[in-house]
Amino acid sequence: MPIPILKLHNYLLISIQTEIDDITAIEFQEDLLDKIYKTGATGVVIDLTSVEIIDSFIAKVLGDVVAMSDLMGAKVVLTGIQPAVAMTLIDLGIHLQNIPTALDLEQGLIKLHQELGD
Amino acid sequence: MKPQSSCVTIQKEWDIVGARHVARDMAKTLGFGTVDQARIATAVSELARNIYLYANNDGQIYFDMINTIDGKGLSIIAVDSGPGISDIAEVMQDGFSTSGGLGAGLPGVKRLMDEFDIQSELGKGTKITAKKWVR
Ligand SMILES: Nc1ncnc2c1ncn2[C@@H]1O[C@H](COP(=O)(O)OP(=O)(O)OP(=O)(O)O)[C@@H](O)[C@H]1O
Ligand SMILES: [Mg+2]
């Protein structure tokens, strides 16, 4: 099942609610870039509140999505990373250093507003 | 009674998801906290994906609950009859990948779990044993 992408003004909002397998992750990457291109969105919030596991593959896809969106002119903020997920990412040696994050969807939107000024 | 042991055969991509569900269920049953449950499920996801990617979809993950006087824990054994690994030290380095991945899987599993052992023979396959103890 594809991950739904909602449009709100200049922003795209995604709340990942299902377990992500590799194929879903890759499809999501393509869908999102396509949607950024078609809508001219300047900001994207990906909410991970319901995501219970991020392994190296999913982490790579998320990192790539942020970098690719950036190339297309859309800023991505990741929100709602669970404490257990944050800890396993560090064990994996994945630091997501240059990726903007926020506590929840609302904070993510505020962050986009501040950084993009729209 | 929940099963004390279980085995997942890794043949298709979705089996990776199946394996991590089994891992989380067993970890929960054993009384691991949420963070350790996530660590165990993540480690299993890495091992299962490696079988899927590198071992011609020919491998299994065995789960065994350990309950002895030494303590309670979960043993995970990933076995495959893939090509094997020629240089173990190399694949255990952070960032080493032959598939354009992050190269975080194997060194990550070692850090996520309490015990880790890898044995491999070229042309025969690979066996990785990892354990986590309930604290
Ligand atoms: N079961 C296996 N059989 C044969 N080779 C393997 C096996 N598991 C891992 N390897 C080799 O070891 C390398 C390192 O594995 P590791 O899981 O650490 O990183 P990766 O799979 O390349 O990337 P990531 O796991 O971060 O997505 C792999 O690129 C592959 O060449
Ligand atoms: Mg791997």
Largest sheet of chain B: 5 strands, antiparallel
Global morphology of chain A? globular
**Topology as H/E string of chain B?**
EHHEEHHEE
Number of domains of chain A: 1
Look at the structure and give the mean pLDDT of chain B.
Answer: 96
Bound molecules: adenosine-5'-triphosphate, magnesium ion
CATH fold description of chain B: Heat Shock Protein 90
Query: Helical region count of chain B?
Result: 4
Helix content of chain A: 40-55%
User: What is the number of domains of chain B?
Assistant: 1
CATH level-four homologous superfamily name of chain A: STAS domain
Question: What is the CATH third-level topology name of chain A?
Answer: Transcription Regulator spoIIAA
Specify the CATH class of chain B.
Answer: Alpha Beta
Q: What level of helicity do the residues of chain B show?
A: 25-40%
> What is the spatial order of strands in the main beta sheet of chain B?
1-2-3-5-4
Integer-rounded radius of gyration of chain B: 14 Å
Protein architecture, described:
The complex is a heterodimer of chains A (118) and B (135). Chain A has 118 residues and is of the alpha/beta class. Chain A is 47% helix and 17% strand. In chain A, helix 1 (22-39) packs parallel to helix 2 (56-71). In chain A, 36% of the residues are buried. Chain B is α+β, with helices and mostly antiparallel strands and 135 residues long. In chain B, strands 1-2-3-5-4 form a five-stranded antiparallel sheet, with helices on one face. The mean pLDDT of chain B is 96. Bound molecules: adenosine-5'-triphosphate and magnesium ion (MG).
